[in-house]
Amino acid sequence: MDDRLPPDPTKLLEQWMEWERGETSPGRVMSNLKTGGLRDLLEELAAQRTA
After folding, report:
1. What values do phi and psi take at 26, rounded to 5?
2. Rounded to the nearest 10 degrees, how much is the dihedral formed by the CA atoms of 2, 27, 23, 42?
3. pTM value?
4. pLDDT tens per residue, range 1-51
5. How many angstroms separate the CA atoms of 2 and 34, rounded?
6. How far apart are CA 25 and CA 8, in angstroms?
7. Pseudo-torsion of CA 7, 19, 27, 43, nearest 10°?
8. Are 29 and 19 in contact (CB under 8 A)?
């Protein structure tokens, strides 16, 4: 059973922007994006585009 919440694009963008502003290290950002569901979001967008 998967108890993860769906990805929140706004939260993912904010985490990315923290890196761009130099507030968060690249490794931490990648970890946050991974646990935040970036892969799921990208897979969903890619599937929509090819449909």
Report:
1. -55, -40
2. -50
3. 0.84
4. 567 789 999 999 999 999 999 999 999 999 999 999 999 999 999 999 998
5. 15
6. 21
7. 30
8. yes
- Contacts for 5 with CB less than 8 Å, ≥ 6 apart: 37
* 19, two tokens: 């890196």
CA–CA separation, 13 and 36 (whole Å)? 10
Give the amino acid at 7: P
Measured CA to CA, the distance from residue 28 to residue 31 in angstroms comes to 5
| pLDDT of 1 | 52
d(CA 26, CA 34): 12
Tokens representing 15 are 């985490």
